[in-house]
From TrEMBL:
Protein name: Integrase family protein
MF terms in GO: DNA binding
Keywords per UniProt: DNA integration, DNA recombination, DNA-binding
The keyword DNA-binding is annotated on this UniProt entry: yes
GO BP term, example: DNA recombination
Domain Tyr recombinase, residue spans: 132-303
Domain Core-binding (CB) as annotated: residue spans: 36-116
Organism: Desulfurivibrio alkaliphilus (strain DSM 19089 / UNIQEM U267 / AHT2)
InterPro entries: CB, DNA_brk_join_enz, Integrase-like_cat_sf, Integrase_catalytic, Integrase_recombinase_N
Regions that span the bilayer: none
């Protein structure tokens, strides 16, 4: 399909646009056809309100924009479950609220239905399954339940002191000092070390950037890699350990609290250098692996 992202999304949405018809009747029809769970009902029903349509189409545009930027996919009919998973993983990495994530997941589930209906109407030999990939992220998304926009740890040192495993403390120190993502801090190999406290990483979309940490943290990291061949910890186990340590320290949130704090401190630092708010937002956004300056607003507590 050719055309702008906005046009493609609007075109696909026509296949599930049931505004003006009864949502209740549609649900009853779906149940009569064998749907038992709410998810099964959602698969068999369309969009029945302007408000839902506006919210869902916004997510569809964001997903296609993400896929275009990071995977080179410009045609909405060529989206796969892997592309959808990549987009949702980026939302989790950004620390969005659980409600925001849930809405995005629901919207992309509906996009699956829309694309399947479109393919059938056009006689395309193509089928879509996004919901399977969405379900694989459920466990990771659970951690968003306690997240709030802009939630930074007030006392990160106390949280880190509550981590008994030295590898978890090292991982937390890396996040605290660099503002990197969970995925970037939990796996670092020898070839990424650049000396002088610098570690090269390849983030989302294959984009490279350099993390800069204290000499002590870098020394610990290099020693760990020399001993084990790489620095690797389980994301789930580390995430759970940080959440427990945060609760014990009287904090709310998860490992995202380190990233939020780093962004807030970095932003204030750049403002102190005399940068305008817009310049500081743009630079900080790039430093944490994003292109859009407004991403910084999320970490500052605004949307």
């Amino acid at each position: 399909m050719r055309g702008s992202i906005k046009w493609q999304v609007q075109e696909i949405s026509k296949s599930v646009n049931h505004i003006g018809t009864s949502r209740h009747s549609a649900k009853e029809t779906a149940r009569s056809a064998g749907a038992r769970t709410s998810a099964q009902v959602a698969e068999k029903t369309g969009i029945h309100s302007y408000r839902t349509r506006e919210a869902y189409l916004k997510v569809w545009r964001q997903c296609l924009s993400h896929s275009k930027e990071h995977h080179g996919v410009k045609d909405i009919t060529k989206l796969t479950g892997e592309h959808v998973q990549s987009f949702l993983s980026s939302r989790i990495a950004d620390g969005v609220s659980r409600q925001t994530y849930g809405q995005a997941a629901a919207a992309l589930g509906k996009l699956e239905s829309a694309l399947n209906s479109y393919a059938t109407s056009k006689g395309l030999e193509r089928s879509y399954d996004f919901r399977t990939e969405i379900r694989t992220l459920r466990h990771e998304a659970r951690d968003l339940r306690t997240m709030e926009a802009g939630r930074a740890f007030r006392d990160p040192d106390r949280v880190m002191a509550g981590l008994r495993d030295p590898d978890y403390r090292l991982t937390a120190a890396i996040q605290r000092e660099t503002g990197c993502r969970l995925s970037e801090a939990t796996l670092i190999r020898a070839e990424q070390l650049r000396g002088g406290g610098q570690v090269e990483i390849r983030g989302k979309g294959g984009k490279e950037r350099t993390l800069r940490m204290s000499a002590d943290t870098y020394r610990q990291l290099a020693a760990r890699i020399a001993e084990q061949g790489e620095h690797r910890v389980s994301r789930d186990a580390y995430r759970a350990a940080v959440s427990r340590a945060a609760e014990a320290a009287g904090e709310r949130g998860s490992n995202h609290g380190f990233r939020h704090l780093w962004v807030q401190e970095r932003f204030r630092e750049k403002i102190g250098y005399g940068m305008s708010r817009e310049q500081a937002m743009a630079e900080v956004s790039r430093e944490i692996g994003h292109e859009r300056p407004d991403i910084t607003l999320h970490y500052l507590g605004g949307r």
